[in-house]
UniProtKB/TrEMBL annotation:
Belongs to the prephenate/arogenate dehydrogenase family. It comes from Microbacterium esteraromaticum. Residues 15-292 form the Prephenate/arogenate dehydrogenase domain. Signal peptide: none annotated. This is Arogenate dehydrogenase. The lineage of its organism: Bacteria, Bacillati, Actinomycetota, Actinomycetes, Micrococcales.
Amino acid sequence: MSHPHRAHVAARLSGTVRIVGAGLLGSSIGHALRAKDIDVVLADASPSQLRLAIDYGAGRRARDDDRPGLIVVAVPPDVVADVIEAELAVYPDAVVTDVASVKLDPFDELRRRGVDLTRYIGSHPLAGRERGGAISARADLFIGRPWVVCRDGETRPADLALVEALALDVGAMPLEMTPEEHDRSVAITSHVPQVVASLLAARLADADEGSLRLAGQGVRDTTRIAASAPELWVQILGANAEPIVEVLDALASDLRDVSDALREPNAPGSRRTVADAIRQGNEGVERLPGKHGQNRRFEQLVVMVDDTPGQLGRLFGELGELNVNVEDLRLEHSPGAQFGLAEISVAPAALRGAIDGLEERGWQIAGNTND
């Protein structure tokens, strides 16, 4: 859902913001800040990446007289501590933050080096795409997403306000955590899911073509993030190894229990073991925040959509006429068929009206949560 009013909200930041690292996150921050007319300076170790980000409008080149008040470090995890240390030294009046997906490792490394971290505040926007680089950057990447800010006892209130203003200016929702809380949280919500998706997708590498033709939304949902870059994830997983290993060991134990139960599915207790695994999954997914951060579940209806131009637009238009708000959408194309399946999430109270209204308008409903 678009936010046409967002561009009219005045920027909280002022002056110059320096972004080191012009990849997906750095360039996306640049685009979001430039949309609010904030002066953005870009720097990157790769001249071609830097030129590309500037050409796309994410910011400008650095000048010798630049005096940034805020510096955002958006570089790979294995160099983030080096870059933070260098930026603190070169710009003694600036507040430095970083957007690395692991917070404790660079903080501890900088402490070991004896770096004064008074002006450093680690942060992490929980946003991204499977594709990387400046060419994939988007100004709306952070809208509605959490942005963790890791303060400590030395953090000055004005510096904290600056980093929180950055998050708010790009449309994110600031959330304070310690580095330890952050890393344990992303282990279970981001890092382990990446490993699980990759391992599951690896089973498909040797599958025969006939099996793959049966691939539906289930396998696509559970393997979507498996397309991520191995080089980056080796760094991320290594930097947050301890909490990740803890979750993986527990998961491995659960997998072994289910595997053992299915070796003798008729043995006493086997069916309960399998049922408990599925039920506990139900309980876990119910806790995931939904739209606007609410722990609220929606109903789904599946509509058959002809694979011709304008059909999806017509479907959305008629749902609008029915005063049905689309909370979420996913599309599945049927192999070899000239139609797709649109799974639409709506508020429970709107489900029956959506089904009846669409059927009256000639749409074929392929399924819904009440079936």
